Amino acid sequence: MRRAFLAVGALAVVAGGAAWWLTSPDPVSAAALQGITGDAERGAALFTQAGCASCHLAPEAEEDGPPMLAGGMAFETQFGTFYAPNISPGQEGVGGWSEADLVNAMAAGISPSGAHYYPALPYTSYQNADPQDLADIAAHLMTLPVADTPSRPHDLSFPFNIRRSLGFWKLLYADRGWVMEAPDTPELERGRYLVEALFHCGQCHTTRTALGGMEFDAWLQGAQNPNGDGRIPGIAPGQLDWSDADIAAYLRTGLTPDYDSVGGHMAAVVRNLATLPDEDIAAIVAYLGAIPAAPE
User: Fold this and answer.
1) Which domain of life is it from (predicted)?
2) What CATH architecture does domain 34-173 belong to?
3) Helix ranges restricted to H, 71-148
4) For residue range 80-104, what is the model confidence (pLDDT) as tens digits?
C-alpha cells in the first residue's frame, strides 16, 4: 500500500510538472527582435490601423486629440466580462515597459512578469504582424498621455479565471499561422496582412469554438455576438451581394450601397480603415473576394 501511494504521488508530481511545462509562456524569440528599434512617427499610423484606441479608450473619453488609453471598456462573453486595461505610458499602465515587453504582449500574449494574457487581446492575429510594425506601435504608444486610472480586473467564472490554464488554450489556438497560406499576388499578400494580422478582422467575423478559438474552416463567415445579442455578419464571398466598388466605398465611408450607415464597434473600424491609402483598401477588397465562400 505504501509503495502504491508513493507511485501515485510520483505520477502526480510528473503530471504536474508536465502541465506546468506545457502551460509555460512562450515569448517572441530574441532573434526575431534582434536589431529592431521602434519608430514612433511610423507607429502612429499603425497604432490607428491596429485599432488600439478603439478598445483601450475609457468608455466616456473624448476621441479628439491624443488618445487617453485609460481602459475600462467591457466585453461581455460566455466566460464572463473582460475589461480593457490601462495601456497608457504611466505607472498604472505600461510605464517602464520595454519595446520587447510590448511586442511580447501584442504578439505572444505574455506580460513582462511572464503571465498569460487572455485572448480578448487579439494576439492570435498580431502574432502574424511584422515585429518591426509592432515595435513601431510600441514606440508611438510611449508618446501618448498618461492616465492614472487603475485597470479593472476581469470578472470571469471558474475555471476561466485560472490564468495559467491559458497555456493549454494557446497550445490549441495560438501559432496557427496564416489562413490564406499562399497569396497569388502582392496585392493579395498585402490584403492578407491587413485583414488577418493588423486589422484582426477574424476576431469578430469568425465563429468560435466552445473554448473561444477561431474556427478557420468558417473564416469570416460571421459569428454570434459574444455578448449574446445578435450576430456579427459574414463577409466571405456569397454573403455580400455588393460590387468591389461598393465594398471599397463602405470601408472608406461606412455607407452601404443603399445608403445605410455603419454603427456599433464597426464605426470605429471604419474610422481606422479610412486612414489607409487607396491601394490598401483595394488589397482588402481583393482578399475578401479570394477567400473560400460561405456554404449556401
Assistant:
1) Bacteria
2) Orthogonal Bundle (1.10)
3) 99-108, 123-126, 131-141
4) 999 999 999 999 999 989 999 999 9
Q: How many CA atoms lie within 13 A of 58 on its CB side?
A: 17
How many secondary structure helices (H) and strands (E) does the chain include?
13, 5
Instruction: Give the integer Cα–Cα distance in Å for 151 and 124.
Output: 22
**pLDDT at 126 (0 to 100):** 95
Q: What distance in Å separates the CA atoms of residue 206 and residue 217, rounded to the nearest whole number?
A: 9
* Cα dihedral sign, 197-203-207-212: positive
The three-state secondary structure class of 173 is helix
C-alpha cell at 282: 483595394
For domain 186-290, is the CATH number 1.20.1250? no
- Gap between the Cα atoms of 55 and 83, Å rounded: 9
Distances (CA, A) of 75 to 97, 156, 210, 236, 265: 25, 11, 17, 25, 11
- Ranges of the chain whose pLDDT falls below 50: 5-6, 12-16, 20-21
DSSP code of residue 196 = I
Q: Which residue do the cell numbers 519595446 mark?
A: 99
Roughly what angle, to the nearest 10 degrees, separates helices 265-273 and 244-253? 100
Torsion angle of C-alpha atoms 274, 277, 279, 281, degrees rounded to 10: -10
3-class DSSP state for residue 224? strand
Each domain of the chain, given as residue ranges in start order, spans 34-173, 186-290
